[in-house]
Amino acid sequence: MPLGRWKSVEHPDIANVQIDEVLHALADPTRRRIVRMLIEEGDRPCGTFGLGIAPSTLSHHFKALRNAGLIRQFDSGRQRMNTTRLVELDAKFPGLVDSILSLAEPERPNG
Amino acid sequence: MPLGRWKSVEHPDIANVQIDEVLHALADPTRRRIVRMLIEEGDRPCGTFGLGIAPSTLSHHFKALRNAGLIRQFDSGRQRMNTTRLVELDAKFPGLVDSILSLAEPERPNG
After folding, report:
1. Domain extent for A39
2. Min CA distance, B20 vs chain A (Å)?
3. Among A33, A54, B5, B45, which has the highest number of CB atoms less than 10 A from its own CB?
4. How large is the ipTM?
5. What are the tens digits of pLDDT across the range A87-104?
6. Domain-located, residue A1
7. For residues B30 and B65, what is the distance between their CA atoms, to the nearest angstrom?
8. Which of A27, A93, A95 shows the shortest C-beta gap to B23?
9. Among A70, A58, A85, A88, which residue's Cα sits nearest to residue A22?
10. Quick check: A94 contacting B, CB < 8 Å?
């Protein structure tokens, strides 16, 4: 991991993340879907989520997820990558994200 | 309980409450405090919460809590009373509200 890898995007220290931001970030089905895709399929570039929504809207969702400590973004070559911060976040709010994700769309077939 | 007791205020059927509304409603410390007071101290009229916030703001908070199925309001004489709907809501989203409330302000002394 090259030094300064995260420098182009701001990320909060998990210690400063408030539960209000986490709840707000997860109170949206598109944002939950982004988090699920990262959990289930691993890190991926911004342009590959295939959600059929405008880049500006997607950018807004990524920002909400970053501010809530749910994802981390970093530049890799010419791509902006996304990864979850769930290990960090779960240490601060144990079980919260799992609980919300499992209750939110329980009947989805897979993925 | 007189028939038509709830008729002056609209309440969603719990079956129609979405998790997005619950998360949004609980993503605010004042709204969480209202819910806690109802859980810990029982039903109470709108004017007795003593939160030091403007009535119009408080009214907005009550509406968010009603829409999320978290509280029910009813008129009793000249007072508008508030009660929780946590039994109903917990049947739909098991453990969610408890989890959020216990993680949100874990270090508060009491009440």
Report:
1. 18-103
2. 4
3. A33
4. 0.86
5. 999 999 999 999 999 999
6. no
7. 11
8. A27
9. A70
10. yes
